[in-house]
Specification:
By secondary structure, the protein is α+β, with helices and mostly antiparallel strands. It folds into 3 domains: about 230 residues, Transposase Inhibitor Protein From Tn5, Chain A, domain 1; about 100 residues, Orthogonal Bundle (Helix Hairpins), CATH 1.10.287; about 110 residues, no CATH class. About 55% of the residues lie in helices and about 15% in strands. Strands 1, 2, 3, 4, 5, 6, 7, 8, 9, 10, 11 and 12 form a 12-stranded mixed β-sheet that branches. Strand 7 and strand 8 form a beta hairpin. Helix 1 runs antiparallel to helix 2, helix 11 packs across helix 14 and helix 13 crosses helix 14. The chain starts with 8 loop residues before the first strand and ends with a helix.
């Protein structure tokens, strides 16, 4: 069977680059997933490459966040205005229909004037009834229009208030004016980097992926977290799969997105699918978990959904993959590779000072991040060469270190087993707990002090 060391993967994730001053060029208020709050800084998006043994950063971009509150309020107002416009058109149509009906009534009444037979009275009565119904419809439509108009006015006031409380990029106009600004020629790399700041991260990820594939990097999977999963990415992966054999493996939000169930061609959201298939959950002792595999199409692309519940955790996680041949065991093993980018972010910030540049120039911020990523690549390559390139070194080191690394390896296995049992006991989600452990510098330092040999083994293998 294929092992994790034989799997090659692109890995994408973002991290917060905090900045202390608002005068730094293009800085904004961004959401920090670690503190669950908002801080001034950038978001750095990184596309990395796992070659089976080591992680290397390939591409990156800086982003700022305009602010979700104002966008949400604006979206609600746009929806209300669309409904108001549609209702206005309906009122016009009903007004025209009433006018036509009244004209018909007058014509029928005139034609049957002085005619008292039963048929004539019936025609006049029918025309009068049509006028009454048309007036009723117009009255109801007018009332509905008045309600929608009041709602739109309310939402306009709400948007104005939200923009005052939550200005674009988390900065007032005065603060935006105080930021450092620099003119850049549109053809320069600096201008291209500046333009990337306001591009959606999901869009930029797809551009990075295309560049990486074009430059000859070969991978079996693209591994992402839930906020990157969308229809556009799925369709891109479907195209790349035909020529380059790349599949997507991603965490997915348990949201309102609809999936077409292959078995009956009906659409369900994640929660509805879980209710429908929860009784068919399979127990996987290898990962102390239960899972449900569901065949669906999403964005006209065939994918498999895996609902996963770890140990005694009360919540289900959802993963999706375009690899229709993968089983649950391999799915979990491959997705664990994604933790290597979390380790990359922690080590780059801790040891290579990623994001520590004090300059207020955006060009300097990009240059500083580039140097940090190049340093990480060189160090990862050096470690790879020292550990694996010299066969003489391998055999000499094997004689001296075989015992201690064997013990360290067993300790590492025991550590993760104990961690899994603990999470199961306490009903903690092991995905969230592992991520928090890797991101916590104090916890990692304590492990280093506890046993350097164990930590070295852990450092090499925890991503795998």
């Amino acid at each position: 069977p294929e092992t994790v060391n034989e799997v090659r993967a692109f890995i994408a994730d973002d991290s917060t680059i905090p900045k202390s001053g608002i005068k730094t060029e293009l800085v904004s208020r961004v959401h920090d997933h670690v503190s669950c709050g908002y801080i001034f800084g950038y978001k750095i998006l990184v596309l990395g490459y796992w070659d089976g043994l080591s992680f290397y950063p390939l591409d990156f971009s800086f982003h700022r966040e305009k602010g979700k509150q104002a966008d949400d309020a604006k979206q609600r107002l746009e929806t209300a205005n669309k409904r108001l416009s549609a209702q206005r058109q309906k009122v016009k149509e009903l007004t025209l229909a009433l006018t036509t009906t009244q004209q018909t009534f007058r014509l029928v009444k005139k034609e049957n004037k002085g005619n008292q037979n039963k048929g004539a009275n019936k025609q006049v009565s029918k025309a009068a009834g049509a006028v009454t119904r048309a007036r009723g419809k117009l009255k109801n439509a007018g009332s509905k229009y008045t309600e929608l108009e009041a709602k739109a006015i309310e939402l306009r006031s709400e948007l104005k208030e939200v923009r005052h409380k939550h200005p674009d990029y988390g900065l007032t106009k005065k603060q935006m004016g105080q930021q450092f600004k620099k003119f850049r020629d549109a053809k320069t790399p600096g201008a291209q980097r500046e333009a990337e700041v306001d591009v959606k991260k999901t869009t930029n990820l797809m551009n990075m992926l295309k560049r990486a594939v074009k430059r000859g990097f070969k991978a079996d999977y693209l591994l992402t977290d839930s906020w990157f999963f969308n229809v556009a990415l799925i369709k891109l992966i479907s195209k790349l799969n035909k020529k380059h054999g790349i599949n997507l493996l991603s965490m997915v939000r348990m949201g309102a997105a609809k999936y077409c169930l292959v078995s009956n061609n009906r659409f369900y959201n994640a929660a509805e699918l879980l209710i429908k298939f929860e009784r068919k959950a399979i127990t996987a002792r290898s990962h102390n978990s239960r899972y449900i595999k569901v065949a669906v199409t999403y964005g006209d692309v065939r994918v498999n959904l895996f609902f996963v519940k770890m140990g005694k955790s009360p919540t289900w996680k959802l993963l999706a993959t375009t690899d229709l041949t993968i089983n649950f065991q391999k799915l979990m093993d491959v997705y664990q590779i994604r933790w290597s980018i979390e380790i990359f972010f922690r080590e780059s910030k801790q040891y290579l000072h990623l994001g520590k540049c004090k300059s207020i120039s955006f060009d300097a911020q990009i240059a500083d991040a580039t140097i940090s990523l190049v340093q990480y690549t060189l160090l990862a390559f050096h470690q790879r060469m020292c550990d694996y390139s010299s066969f003489d070194g391998i055999f000499r080191a094997a004689l001296e270190d075989a015992m201690q690394y064997s013990i360290a390896g067993e300790l590492q296995k025991m550590f993760w087993l104990v961690l899994e049992i603990f999470c199961c006991f306490e009903g903690i989600d092991i995905f969230d707990f592992t991520g928090s452990l890797i991101r916590d510098e104090n916890a990692c330092l304590k492990l280093q002090r506890l046993n350097p040999v164990f930590n070295e083994s852990l450092h090499k293998h925890r991503a795998a």
